[in-house]
Design a protein that fits this description.
With 176 residues, the protein is an alpha+beta fold. Helix content is 35%, strand content 17%. It contains 7 helices and 4 strands. The structure holds flavin mononucleotide (FMN).
């Protein structure tokens, strides 16, 4: 169990990738796991668009300056979400699927980073043929990692955990 907790803590956003592409069946293996994320009423409003066409992927890399990791990454996966299938919670459902996908990729030894999609919804719809009743919530840049970043700082646990009431201190816990 401790190994599992350490594994969860060891995921990092990877933005530098080797040039060789992971096989598509490995990507499918990770997406298979993402389908097991929880969703409201088990609605599973997610769809996954795997992008390995270099010119299309490069267009995704240009949607905003922080999308650049997609240029180097051999594969992108766009998580699109059907609003009509989960009208209240579609964004949460698809965020759950996205984090499951990131963790599954990590378990398979692949590197990945979540690229913001929500400011470029129309552009992404047009590039990928996503219908109007679906919204692209995330683009994931994926490849074999070519960097080992240090963990990003986390807020101290005492700052984010309360007991019974917002603002009331929890016992101080020792964490790494
Ligand atoms: C909703 C969301 C949007 C993000 N957008 C970007 C992005 O556009 N480009 C990028 O390089 N990283 C992006 N990230 C990755 C975050 O910068 C990263 O998760 C955060 O700095 C913590 O680092 P870690 O993932 O290595 O723990 C995004 C993450 C989330 C959850």
């Amino acid at each position: 169990m401790d190994n599992c907790l350490e594994f969860l803590k060891s995921r990092r956003s990877i933005r530098r990738f080797r040039r060789d592409s992971p096989p598509l069946d490995l990507i499918l293996k990770a997406i298979d796991v993402a389908r097991y994320a929880p969703s409201a009423r088990n609605s599973q409003p997610w769809r996954f668009i795997v992008v390995n066409d270099p010119s299309l992927k490069n267009k995704l890399a240009e949607i905003h300056p922080w999308a650049r990791p997609l240029k180097e990454a051999p594969i992108g996966v766009v998580v699109a979400c059907h609003i009509d299938e989960s009208p209240t919670s579609y964004m949460l459902d698809c965020a759950n699927a996205t984090i499951y996908l990131l963790l599954a990729l990590h378990a398979l030894g692949l590197g990945a980073v979540w690229i913001q999609a929500l400011r470029n919804v129309e552009e992404l719809r047009e590039l990928l043929g996503i219908p109007n009743n679906a919204i692209p919530v995330a683009v994931i840049a994926i490849g074999y990692p070519d960097e080992k970043p240090e963990p990003r700082p986390r807020r101290p646990i005492g700052e984010v955990v309360f007991l019974n009431k917002y603002g009331s201190k929890f016992i101080v816990m020792k964490t790494s």
